[in-house]
């Protein structure tokens, strides 16, 4: 496929995206407004994934951007990735406290220190809010669920593909150990086809999660040894260091155990998921085909539903 | 190859019994029994690692923080002996092992 004339230089991708008005800076690294040209690409990717998943799934859930705080603890996320987690803090004051608050604000006091945790956390991953809902006995044959929502990871960065808030579009399988592993392996191949059908140069590689701290190296080694995590990578901001745009994970019985989810036979359930990073896929498309979707190859535009009226 | 010191081996076996949460009795394990096949989970391996560091006052270098180090009582004891007897040996091996292991 011919390289578009306006394909941005890899190192200047963030600058190019800002100058083109596709991303609008907020002053916080990794946090941008996105204009409608960018969002139409994201919507197109969502429809493509949804259509691919439709024959397999028994439910589709749209997730709120926050979840009960104990999900962070029960999933093990707080133990493994404390550096990425976000909590929602709110002001506990009453109307009678308002006058004093106003005086502190006028004095320049940092009143955000008075905000306390209110048992909510920012959603950590597209499948995490599902597990408490699935506690109990699964139906025979297990479940395959499509889940879509906003996630938060506290990792401010100048890499335009490393956003602090981003959407994951997931297809989650929970049931027998065999079906969970098969689901992951099957969806890696389907995802490669979907990405290549959009003209992206992708490959699947064994990867590991960014486990925090010194112990993280040991956890990462064990995860890679069992190939529990596969990532689909493509060059975005750097040709030398490709970016993961989709990941496919085997959880073994980690969530089944933590959330007391059992198969119809009473065995602790295994789970797996594939998560499409829709903003990263959109960025990969912009890096590959150029910053003007109106000039992208017609097959790519057709697959994303980008018409003359919605370029 | 130096032989394992019984004291170190016995201490490792005790720590494994206390922290590894295995499905079998640690006393029944051979020095080369695969701990992961005996029920050692990823998070339990962290607990074993931290307990060993606390008891012996050592810190496993980055290059030793991999699955093979905690594969058996024998491999843990060998790594520990290297740390206790050779302060620079494990650190020197670390970066090269990381590079070789990268994909």
Set down the secondary structure blueprint:
The complex is a heterodimer of chains A (311) and B (103).
Chain A: H1 13-19, E1 23-25, E2 32-34, H2 36-53, E3 59-63, E4 66-68, H3 70-74, H4 77-80, E5 87-90, H5 98-106, E6 116-122, H6 130-133, E7 136-137, E8 143-152, E9 165-175, H7 177-197, E10 203-207, H8 215-225, E11 229-234, E12 243-252, H9 254-258, E13 261-262, E14 270-277, H10 278-289, H11 298-304
Parallel strand pairs in A: 3-8, 7-13
Antiparallel strand pairs in A: 1-2, 4-6, 5-6, 8-9, 9-14, 10-11, 11-12, 12-14
Chain B: H1 6-19, H2 42-56, H3 73-85, H4 89-101
Helix pairs in contact in B: 1-2, 1-3
Structure explained in plain terms:
The complex is a heterodimer of chains A (311) and B (103). In chain A, 33% of the residues lie in helices and 25% in strands. By secondary structure, chain A is of the alpha+beta class. In chain A, a hairpin with an 8-residue loop joins strand 11 (229-234) and strand 12 (243-252). Chain A contains eleven helices and 14 strands. In chain A, helix 2 packs across helix 10 (278-289). The model of chain A is unreliable at 1-10 (pLDDT under 50). Chain B is globular and about 35 Å long. Chain B has four helices and no strands. In chain B, 53% of the residues lie in helices and 0% in strands. In chain B, helix 1 packs across helix 2 and helix 1 crosses helix 3. Residues 89-103 of chain B have low confidence and may be disordered. Chain B has helices at residues 6-19, 42-56, 73-85, 89-101. By secondary structure, chain B is mostly helical. The interface between A and B is medium-sized, with 13 and 15 residues.
Instruction: Count every helix of chain A, treating DSSP H or I runs of 4 or more residues as helices.
Output: 11
* Class by SSE composition of chain B: mainly alpha
Order of helices and strands of chain B: HHHH
What can be said about the biggest beta sheet of chain B? none
The largest sheet of chain A has its strands arranged as 3-8-9-14-12-11-10
Shape of chain B: globular
Q: How far is it from the N-terminal to the C-terminal residue of chain A, by CA?
A: 20 Å
What are the low-pLDDT stretches of chain A, counting only 5+ consecutive residues below 50? 1-10
> What level of helicity do the residues of chain A show?
25-40%
Main sheet overview of chain A: 7 strands, mixed
Q: What percent strand of chain A? A: 25-35%
- Strand count of chain A: 14
How far apart lie the N and C ends of chain B?
30 Å
Shape of chain A: globular
Class per helix and strand makeup of chain A: alpha+beta
Uncertain runs of chain B with pLDDT below 50, 5 residues or more?
Answer: 89-103
Enumerate how many helices of chain B there are, as a single number: 4
Mean of residue pLDDT values of chain A? 93
**What is the CA-atom radius of gyration of chain B, in angstroms?**
13 Å
């Amino acid at each position: 496929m011919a390289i578009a004339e306006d394909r941005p230089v890899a190192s200047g991708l963030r600058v190019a995206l800002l100058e083109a008005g596709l991303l609008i800076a907020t002053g916080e690294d990794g946090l941008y407004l996105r204009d409608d040209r960018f969002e139409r690409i994201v919507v197109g990717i969502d429809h493509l994934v949804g259509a691919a998943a439709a024959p397999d799934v028994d439910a589709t859930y749209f997730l709120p951007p926050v979840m009960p705080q104990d999900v962070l603890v029960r999933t093990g996320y707080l133990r493994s990735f404390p550096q990425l987690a976000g909590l929602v803090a709110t002001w506990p004051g009453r109307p009678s406290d308002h006058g004093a608050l106003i005086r502190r604000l006028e004095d320049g006091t940092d009143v955000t220190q008075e905000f306390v945790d209110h048992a909510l956390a920012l959603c950590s991953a597209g499948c995490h809010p599902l597990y408490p809902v699935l506690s109990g006995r699964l139906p025979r044959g297990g479940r395959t669920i499509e889940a879509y929502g906003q996630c938060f990871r506290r990792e401010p960065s100048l890499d335009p593909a490393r956003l602090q808030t981003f959407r994951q579009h997931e297809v989650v399988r929970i049931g027998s150990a065999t079906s969970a592993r098969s689901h992951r392996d099957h969806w890696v191949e389907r995802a490669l086809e979907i990405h290549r059908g959009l003209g992206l140069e992708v490959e699947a590689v064994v990867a590991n999660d960014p486990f925090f701290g010194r112990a993280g190296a040991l956890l990462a080694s064990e995860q890679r040894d069992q190939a529990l995590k596969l990532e689909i990578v493509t060059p975005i901001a750097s040709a030398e260091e490709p970016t993961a745009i989709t990941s496919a994970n085997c959880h073994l019985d980690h969530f089944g155990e933590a959330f007391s989810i059992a198969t119809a036979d009473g065995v602790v359930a295994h789970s797996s998921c594939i998560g499409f990073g829709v903003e990263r896929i959109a960025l990969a498309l912009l890096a590959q085909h150029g910053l003007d979707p109106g000039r992208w190859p017609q097959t790519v535009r057709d697959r994303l539903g980008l018409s003359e009226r919605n370029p | 190859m130096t032989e394992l010191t019984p004291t170190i081996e016995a201490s490792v076996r005790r720590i494994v019994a206390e922290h590894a949460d295995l499905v079998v009795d640690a006393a029944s394990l051979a020095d080369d029994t695969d701990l992961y096949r005996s029920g050692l989970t990823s998070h339990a391996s962290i607990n074993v690692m931290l307990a060993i560091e606390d008891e012996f006052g050592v810190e496993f270098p980055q290059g030793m923080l991999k699955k093979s180090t905690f594969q058996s009582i024998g491999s843990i004891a060998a790594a520990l002996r290297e740390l206790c007897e050779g302060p620079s040996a494990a650190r020197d091996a670390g970066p090269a092992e990381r590079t070789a292991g990268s994909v």
